[in-house]
Amino acid sequence: MDPLNCRLCASPLSMTFVDLGTMPLANAYIASADAGEAEPTHPLHARVCQVCFLVQVEDVVAAEAIFTDYAYFSSYSDTWLEHARRFAVSTTERFGLGRNSLVVELASNDGYLLRYLAALGVPVLGVEPAKNVAAVAQAAGIETIVDFFGAELASNIAADRRPADLVVANNVLAHVPNLNDFVAGIARIVAPSGIVSIEVPHLLRLIETVAFDTIYHEHFSYFSLITLERVLAAHGLAVFDVQELPTHGGSLRVWSAPKRSSRTPTNRLMSVRDDEQRAGLATIRPYEGFTAKVEQRRDDFRQFLGGARNDGQTVVAYGAAAKGNTFLNYSGVTKADIAYVVDRSPHKQGKLLPGSHLPIFAPVHVRDSRPNFLFILPWNLRREIAFQMSEITSWGGRFVVAMPALEVFG
């Protein structure tokens, strides 16, 4: 596919949504011993298709180079684990899943979700391309196929085992360069009476909150309900329900099923359709002017950093998150601005952030250095992080978030 053609409908891409310049992969953390080596960087330019309105970045790096060995482990967020637990309980009850069912999760990571379903007695199977992450799930007893999901693998799984009663694809569709092959696989693996649950960050909320930090090379596509319904319908799947979620600054959980199952659309589906229609997401209007808003967010943060530096105050960061790396690198942050970052994941500690090269320590390091400000990079988890790190207020430290707007609190 020509990289300047839409990955969904193949129409030419000519309209810029936002151009964030050139930067390294957001999850390409650097070993300290490699700090002096040249760091690969790539253009990060998001465009919008003027036919199907899919917002997308070019797949300048092969998915195999990004996801074969991956630094993100879902189980290090208490908020995310609770999100998964609630999903497992509510979905099992709603759709009557039990020991005679099969749930297949695509991009199952370290088994964070499937372990809750397995504990409820539901047979599960994960598909995860990152060997290092899948190994954690396998060690916990979660059967996991280490491979990239697509139409061929789906056919093999359905033939070797059986079609799935529930297919879960949470926060993976954005990571897929070949959308049509992936969704064709979902259509092949789901049983005729089965259902599909897909969670994606909602493009409407990204635009409303100017959440440009959720744009990075690993996220190839950014979905509205409009575009998601289009790609699902192209492969024989019909959306029957939508839930709006607070995760990732605002997400959609989209429920679909084979068209022949003829499930009745819910009022929630109609409501989100109406919201997107009112916002004009099927027109060019809401995509224009996004760059100016992004620049304002960056400039506000630079002004905060300059003020702190002039006052002799120290700033450190929490969360070696991909979205934080987009924000830091677009804002031109260096160790002169932010001394270091802390993260709970031992898989990231001892390394450097890509681009900014901020060193990553365990959270206890904050207590030792007693900074004036703790900048929360994964702002969607601000409540959880502020609770975990509340000790900083004992020496007068305060928290900072830059998204969806600059705020100092605590």
Architecture blueprint of SSEs:
Elements: E1 15-23, E2 30-31, E3 42-48, E4 55-57, H1 63-67, H2 78-95, E5 103-106, H3 114-119, E6 124-127, H4 131-139, E7 144-145, H5 151-160, E8 164-170, H6 179-189, E9 190-201, H7 203-209, E10 221-222, H8 225-233, E11 237-245, E12 251-258, H9 267-279, H10 290-310, E13 315-318, H11 322-330, E14 341-342, E15 351-352, E16 360-361, H12 364-369, E17 373-376, H13 382-388, E18 398-401, E19 407-409
Parallel strand pairs: 5-6, 5-8, 6-7, 8-9, 13-14, 13-17, 14-16, 17-18
Antiparallel strand pairs: 1-3, 2-15, 3-4, 4-10, 9-12, 11-12, 18-19
Could you explain how this protein is built, in words?
- This protein has helices at 63-67, 78-95, 114-119, 131-139, 151-160, 179-189, 203-209, 225-233, 267-279, 290-310, 322-330, 364-369, 382-388; strands spanning 15-23, 30-31, 42-48, 55-57, 103-106, 124-127, 144-145, 164-170, 190-201, 221-222, 237-245, 251-258, 315-318, 341-342, 351-352, 360-361, 373-376, 398-401, 407-409.
- By secondary structure, it is α/β, with parallel strands linked by helices.
- The chain folds into two domains: 67-287, Rossmann fold (3-Layer(aba) Sandwich); 301-409, Rossmann fold, CATH 3.40.50.
- A hairpin with a 5-residue loop joins strand 11 (237-245) and strand 12 (251-258).
- The N and C termini lie far apart (49 Å).
- The model has no long low-confidence stretch (mean pLDDT 93).
